[in-house]
Amino acid sequence: MSAEVVLSAENLTKSFGRRTAVADVSFEVYAGEVFGFLGPNGAGKTTTIRMLVGLARPDRGRIRIRGFDLSRDFTRAMAHVGSIVESPDLYDYLTGRENLEHFARMLTDAPSPGLRSAGGAGAAGRIPELAKLVSLEERLEDRVATYSLGMRQRLGIAQALLGAPDLLILDEPANGLDPAGIREIRRLVRLLSTERGIAVFVSSHLLAEVEQMCDRVAIIHRGRTLAVGPVRQLLVERQASSLEEVFLEVTGGETV
Amino acid sequence: MTILPLVENEVLKLLKRRRFRVVLLILIALIGIIVFGQSRIRERDRSVDWRVHTQERVARMQSWLRSGRGPTTGLRWTRFEVARLQYHLDRNMDPDAMSGPLFVRAFANVSSHLLFPLLALIFASDIVSSEFAQGSIKLLLTRPVSRTRVLASKLVALVLAVTLTVLLGGLVAYGFGSLAYGLKGWGAPILTGFRAGGDTLDVSTVRAVTLWQDVVVVYGLAWFSALAVGMLGFLTSVLLRSTAAAMGTMFAALIAGSILPFVAATWETQKYLFVTNLPLPDYYSGAPPPIPGITVGFSVVVLAAWAAAALVVAFAVFARRDVLA
Fold first, then answer.
1. pLDDT one-digit tens code per residue, A58-99
2. Strand bridging mode A34-38 / A60-65
3. Residue A143 DSSP symbol
4. Fewer Cβ atoms within 10 A, N terminus or C terminus of chain B?
5. pLDDT tens column, B135-164
6. Cβ pair B323:A50 closer than 8 A
7. Partner B, chain A 144-163, Cβ-Cβ below 8 Å
């Protein structure tokens, strides 16, 4: 991999009281790839993601996004990131458009190189294009309270893309979606990474789900990364036919 | 760099959730009831000459004072009232005269105790915690905007909301007041500058100003005390992250504080509590302050100190704390 590093996490550690949720987690995400962050529920995925987007402070370790240290250069680092943490919690009482306009206004002063290269229209100017991308044009004037989970998920992705980010962080995007919804998300993720060169960080506990869409993965269990690498390489190295087998092998047989 | 787009967001969210409509409805309902009730009482009193009526009241209170029986706070309050009424009698002014503009002033005096603080809390206790309840805090704080700016925009929106609430209160009061007592009277002279000594009302500094000047000062003070409560509600909203818990805590504090002077009149330290100082427009207008020794200036300083401390803590906590749940 000679590609550019978009996100690097070094030795992230976070404890809550006596319980260590995340211990010494390190990985890198390269430009334009789909990176899977895999592990069972309670493995520390969401805690890690909360640290990646600045919602929680790591006790130790460092996060850099496009070279900007997240804790010291928060706004410049976050200008490159779009994210959905846990669930796409937009404002129920606003319409889809009002939600997008709300978050576009938050980018008015953003030091976003992506936005600048995307043209002078600014984030608000991208709303029609993004609505089309996530197939929500028809429902944009409806209140989010009336949206299905799949539609909220897509609106969340549109919101995350407003600032023309280099990195998209999606936390369990397939959770609670029907097969058609999952297929739609998978299509979007592939499209964003191949056609727009956006690095996508996807967490999931559904290994099979993610196997097909990821270029590389990290396997996390009990707060530690057990394996990091390209999907194919992991399969070959461990002589496995699926990520599930790899997972069983590295965790010593515990089921997901 | 400006936080105006962020303030626009916050105001939009307040409007879309119909907070102002609720506040306006409360104001209309409450002021309507007050005006109706008051006009019924005045109907009854109108048959008597105001001088005779006021002299009777003074005499009744004086005989009660001579008996010396009753709670200390009550006796003290009565002494103040006798002094105030006597002062009006001496100058041949009806202390209970009513007009639309006078009602506007009386409304602010009454509202500074509980109504304006409660209305301020409707906005304040929810402006931060609702983002936690909805989960949208995760989006709000993962945008390339510092947490300090996010919170500052919410603070500005809150100040705007409280300001608008106090202004709306004045307008609605004028609407109902002028229906019941007539539109005119803004230029009427009014006595102001009563100063509470320890046990007596000091009338040496009393002077007459035109009513509209007095109304401006009274609303300014009412706005200031509502704002101070708003800042404390803002802090509880940040700390507790739950609208219901924040509102409950602040309501309890307000109500406890309004009872305190009656049950613990001699406990002097309570003059440093924020609740004790809230009705400052009221004792600016001649009502006895809840605790001897409180002046308008003292209250302004105490409230400002509480508000400033609340903001310092709110910003420090908000900027640092992990967002989990």
1. 999 999 999 999 999 999 999 999 999 988 999 999 999 999
2. unpaired
3. B
4. N
5. 999 999 999 999 999 999 999 999 999 999
6. yes
7. 159, 163
